[in-house]
Design goal:
CATH topology of the largest domain in chain A: Rossmann fold
CATH superfamily of the largest domain in chain A: P-loop containing nucleotide triphosphate hydrolases
Organism (chain A): Hansschlegelia beijingensis
Strand content of chain A: 15-25%
Largest interface: A-B, 48 and 39 residues
Strand order of the largest sheet of chain A: 6-7-8-3-9-10
Largest sheet of chain A: 6 strands, mixed
Helix content of chain B: 55-70%
InterPro entries (chain A): AAA+_ATPase (IPR003593), ABC_AA/LPS_Transport (IPR051120), ABC_transporter-like_ATP-bd (IPR003439), BCA_ABC_TP_C (IPR032823), P-loop_NTPase (IPR027417)
CATH topology of the largest domain in chain B: ABC transporter involved in vitamin B12 uptake, BtuC
Number of helices of chain B: 16
Family (chain A): Belongs to the ABC transporter superfamily.
Keywords (chain A): Amino-acid transport, ATP-binding, Nucleotide-binding, Transport
Structural class of chain B: mainly alpha
CATH architecture of the largest domain in chain A: 3-Layer(aba) Sandwich
Oligomer: heterodimer
Helix content of chain A: 40-55%
Strand order of the largest sheet of chain B: 1-2
Distance between the termini of chain A: 48 Å
Protein name (chain A): Branched-chain amino acid transport system ATP-binding protein
Structural class of chain A: alpha/beta
Amino acid sequence: MTVRPLDAPELPPEVLLRVEHLTMRFGGLVAVDDVSFDVRRDEITALIGPNGAGKTTVFNCITGFYKPTVGRLTLRRAEDESWLLERLRDHEISRAAGVARTFQNIRLFGGMTLLENLLVAQHGPLMRASGFTLLGVLGFASYGRAERAAIDKATAWLERIGLIDRADDAAADLPYGDQRRLEIARAMCTDPVLLCLDEPAAGLNPRESAELNTLLRSIRNEGVAVLLIEHDMSVVMEISDHVVVLDYGKKISDGSPAAVREDPKVIAAYLGVEDEEVAKVEQEIERIAEESGA
Amino acid sequence: MADHAPAHPSSPFMAALRNAFITALIALGLAAPMMGLVTVQGPNGLRLEPHWERVAIAVGLVFLGRLALNLTIWRPDAGRTRTQIPPRVEATLARLGRWFAPVAVALAVALPFLPGVERYTVDLAILVLTYVMLGWGLNIVVGLAGLLDLGYVAFYAVGAYSYALLAQHFGLSFWVCLPLAGILAAFWGVLLGFPVLRLRGDYLAIVTLAFGEIIRIVLLNWYWFTGGPNGIGGIPRPSFFGLDFTPGPDGFAATFGLKFSPLHRIIFLYYLILALALITNFVTIRLRRLPIGRAWEALREDEIACRSLGVNTVNTKLTAFALGAMFAGFAGSFFATRQGFISPESFVFMESAMILAIVVLGGMGSQIGVAIAAVAMIGGFELFREFKDYRMIVFGAVMVGIMVWRPRGLVSSRTPSVFLKEKKAIAGSLVQEGHG
């Protein structure tokens, strides 16, 4: 149904999203400065960096909440279907390009039930099935079928995140960790090809954090690429296949978790130490990594 | 005020006394000029007549009343004012609630034929039902989509003038004009919707308020088109599918072999507005279960999350404005045909405020609550006619009372639009009120 925009670059088949020269200025402040990286299919990519490094800004550009000042964001959804994300309106990024996101401060529809939350996520297909409301008001059977399919999908997700028993409770009634999982399930109900998670492990206890890792891995194994911002190094090192490090809006490192962990620039940026102390800090990091691996 | 406990806790009685004294001082300040001085027509023009005994009585009452309240309900150790009905009562109410709607509809259908019902009652019921319909229409915009609209009466006016002008200039019948008026009002709803798409909260309220006033002032000043302050008179009355309510041989009564009575038309109008209101209700309930209705509620809960899920917030907001306006347009053309005369005076801000008050009092998003609130407010307003000027005070006091005991309206809980196993009401405190 879609065409590749004329100026969209031809991406290698394994690359899902290519971010090129992304720059975002707010007045005089350069929040993101010439950042380029790839998000590959079948991989979990982590975007890390100290506070204020511009991670969330990159996220907001990819998911359409900001229009980048400079840069090109090409997403290749299928072989013959590419999108330039910076040209799409925010709701089209989710619907057409298949990019779903969660938020740092959870944004559920608190007064609606879990089931309703997951049905709102399927708004696009349901809206088409209801003939843009007209057929639905008249009570056509085709809409009933579509709604049942949507409920089945929501049920499957609720079972998967272990919240099926609370399907008819208000989302705001859930404990924090469950709300995080529900938000991920809601994003997944939009049938994305790229799932962007803004600090999914924040505020989770170790058990919940481990459950989250399992969930994210299973999502990746189903062919949905995951891009996540995370502060919790144990999560990053354990589950990500590819790590991009930002500091003061610039990319300072990009590679496998092991490579990034060894990068002195990353160590310096993360811990704010002089070069002489790097060796000491490296040992420290090693220790943490071992603990997290254990 | 009772929270302002004294800095050094002496005795609770002294604190209560002090508080009551301060309240009495405020009462004195207010009562002295307002009650103590009366202008009387004297031989040499107006003169002031002091009535200090009235002031003394008022201040004394305030002092004693406040003291009594401080020592009983507002005692520091009395705990917080209860704003929640106990769960057991709530459950009983919910059980009754299931029967309430069908019984209310049955009662409404039977009303004109109940014994002891006269013309005045039916007239009043028509008025109440008009507001029920307007409340349900506004409920889509305010209650479901969470967009605060202070200029709703503008669409009511568009509907009324559409019918009046179309009927007068083109001779179109009521049944042709009714959908046209709805479409025109919906069009104006979209027109208002576009500029306010980005606005939230107070800003949205101000722009919608201004929109309502603009429509009224245009109607007032566009003399050759709308008749200005003189309004439009002689608006055709509706016919019963072509049969007029006249005493002649072609009239409704003669055709059906009834004795002519002016009440026939009133009863017909009553059923007309009842049908219109029920259609509004039916469509709203239906829409709530469709993706568009869920998108409205999601928009009220969190607009940013909506956008991240691919919900087109522009279209969603515009449909809410358009549908709300459409129902106001229907109600407006009904109003025009019922009155036979319309002028801009019927579409003042007070009307918008009244409809909004019905929605807020009823509980935003609740269909039954809005209906009860409309009956209570419009019906109550009429019943308290004997109170004359004081009915505004009674009205205000009732509003304050409801907001203290039921801060989220009469029916504050939200019914989910879909459920898997069990339909559980969602407590009002969890539901967002919208961003404006």
